[in-house]
């Protein structure tokens, strides 16, 4: 479950790591630091606890399962896996792609969440279910089979009312909105880097 929010703070203050704090080495082809990235991805999944519906459990467990695939590879070959990109490229050299495929699905899940939250923050009158449904349509839905789509559709319909969700993120609504904007902007940048990386020939299996 999500941790208790400190007085005057927001839910983002309870995250072990924020995407804002994930090191990206611009001089090394935007290499993303593995340890911090995985912690930030894990922290993000507590957002689904705040969404409050068991319908979001599959979304959360799917993302955590993909984080685990990457972490298992990181722990198995730490020196070759200091950045997400090197982790995947070195794994592919072994003719395996468990972690790399995990990254592909994790990136899709992160893009879905990022798009839904950033759209919702930018449209103060839009309900969460509409933002999440619209984000799902352009991120995960095209890759999901007919068995998975109803599970995610149920989650979209089970979103809490906007006012109830934001009140759980913190008491100062202006601060909540400002921090969410900063957070989703940082996540959006990371998603764009990862999508570009996964499109490359050397990242295919």
UniProtKB/TrEMBL annotation:
GO terms for cellular component: cytosol; membrane. GO terms for molecular function: ceramide 1-phosphate binding; ceramide 1-phosphate transfer activity. InterPro entries: GLTP_sf, Glycolipid_transfer_prot_dom. It comes from the Eukaryota. It holds the Pfam family GLTP. Keywords: Transport. Residues 32-170 form the Glycolipid transfer protein domain. This is Glycolipid transfer protein domain-containing protein.
């Amino acid at each position: 479950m999500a941790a208790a929010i400190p007085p005057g703070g927001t839910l983002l203050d309870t995250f072990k790591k924020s995407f804002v704090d994930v090191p990206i080495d611009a001089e090394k082809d935007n290499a993303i630091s593995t340890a911090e990235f995985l912690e930030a991805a894990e922290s993000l999944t507590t957002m689904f606890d705040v969404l409050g519906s068991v319908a979001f459990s599959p979304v959360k467990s799917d993302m955590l399962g993909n984080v685990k695939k990457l972490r298992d590879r990181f722990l198995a070959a730490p020196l070759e896996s200091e950045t997400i990109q090197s982790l995947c490229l070195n794994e592919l050299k072994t003719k395996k792609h468990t972690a790399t495929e995990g990254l592909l699905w994790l990136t899709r899940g992160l893009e879905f969440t990022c798009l839904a939250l950033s759209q919702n923050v930018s449209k103060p009158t839009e309900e969460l279910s509409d933002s999440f449904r619209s984000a799902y349509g352009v991120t995960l839905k095209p890759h999901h089979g007919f068995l998975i789509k109803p599970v995610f559709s149920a989650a979209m319909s089970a979103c809490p009312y906007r006012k109830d969700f934001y009140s759980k993120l913190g008491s100062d609504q202006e601060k909540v909105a400002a921090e969410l904007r900063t957070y989703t902007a940082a996540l959006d940048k990371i998603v764009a880097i990862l999508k570009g990386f996964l499109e490359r020939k050397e990242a295919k299996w």
